[in-house]
Amino acid sequence: MSSSSSSTLGYFRWAFIVTFVGLVLGGVLGWQSTGTVSGTLTVFFICAVLAVLEISLSFDNAIVNANKLKDMTPVWQQRFLTWGILIAVFGMRIVFPLLIVVIAAGIGPIDAIVLAASRPEEYSRIMHEAHLPIAAFGGTFLMMVGLTFFFNHEKDVHWVEFLESRVARFATIKGVEIAFVLLLIMLFSQLLPEADASTFVHAAVYGLLTFLLVEVLGGVLDASQKTMSEAAKGGLGAFIYLEVLDASFSFDGVIGAFALTQNLFIIAIGLGIGAMYVRSMTIMLVEKGTLAEYRYLEHGAFYAILILSVIMYVQTLYHIPEVITGLGGAGLIGLSLWSSIRYNRREQAHGAEALT
């Protein structure tokens, strides 16, 4: 095995360890809950599928994380990759589903845990009923993330040239992306029943406000840190932004996981394994400089984010399997990687011709 492949596998060491431990726990949980070999293998399989689902849905998350992390100081990079992963695994995969049930059912946290353990079908029903506001909130936040990347007049690298160059020119109009998102919110609200429309609009507006507040707060925190110490720039504000971003990415996977199993603990194991691979991919992208090496990789990720945000909106009207969402995002990123490789080969060929 080459040193290159060895070093690449080295980034996934902890992900492999967590995978092994998680699948063993899944098997133990399956045996305790079913008492049969077939039941144990079923739970084991569900954990594996959930991990793959999370990874497929989070390719773009890893790329966007790496894009932000490369501008952060090593101290804050390390804090995000340690504290951040704890928040991502335990906060979004365990605490977040419990919090939804606490709010939706009006019960205490302990009661929510008891409900998840003793009446998983009721727990699942409450989670699915909460899907509308979650999709509206998460979809709006992610849409703003994607549009902000493209509505940027300083952006001079374009993958889909005819589209992105025109969008970048419109970026000089203040608030154009906000106006676009508000227009889309109003359009989708007209397609929903009246009772759902009000819930959708409120949740979507909260998603928009959250994005704007995180942007403002991030700017203020990083600016204040910069005045205290130049070494602190790209710190707390960027950390908060990445945490909210990760939460928005997680909404779809957490809700979708209930289609495979109603057991909160199995979901936490499967999605937790997937989250570790996202962390490993993020570290690899930052340390190997992959984003700089592959010119259009970021573009593919942000297109995938925009498509995911639209899918979350559409899911308020129709069910769209998470497999389609994951494959769509992975396909776009793969296409952008292929375009980047082609671009690099052309540049190398031109360079070789210039030398001859």
Characteristic terms for this protein:
single chain, 356 residues, mainly alpha, 16 helices, DUF475 domain-containing protein, transmembrane, transmembrane helix, membrane, DUF475
Walk me through the structure.
This is DUF475 domain-containing protein. It is built from 16 helices and no strands. It has helices at residues 3-10, 13-34, 37-57, 59-69, 74-105, 109-118, 120-129, 131-150, 161-170, 176-191, 194-228, 236-257, 264-287, 290-293, 297-314, 322-355.
Number of domains: 1
| Approximate shape | globular
SSE class:
mainly alpha
Beta-strand residue fraction: under 5%
Total strands: 0
Biggest sheet descriptor = none
What's a quick, concise take on this entry?
With 356 residues, this protein is mainly α. The chain has helices at residues 3-10, 13-34, 37-57, 59-69, 74-105, 109-118, 120-129, 131-150, 161-170, 176-191, 194-228, 236-257, 264-287, 290-293, 297-314, 322-355. The radius of gyration is 21 Å and the shape is globular.
What are the SSEs and their pairings?
Blueprint: H1 3-10, H2 13-34, H3 37-57, H4 59-69, H5 74-105, H6 109-118, H7 120-129, H8 131-150, H9 161-170, H10 176-191, H11 194-228, H12 236-257, H13 264-287, H14 290-293, H15 297-314, H16 322-355
Helix pairs in contact: 2-3, 2-13, 3-12, 3-13, 3-16, 4-12, 4-13, 4-15, 5-6, 5-12, 5-13, 6-7, 8-10, 8-11, 8-12, 8-15, 10-11, 11-12, 15-16
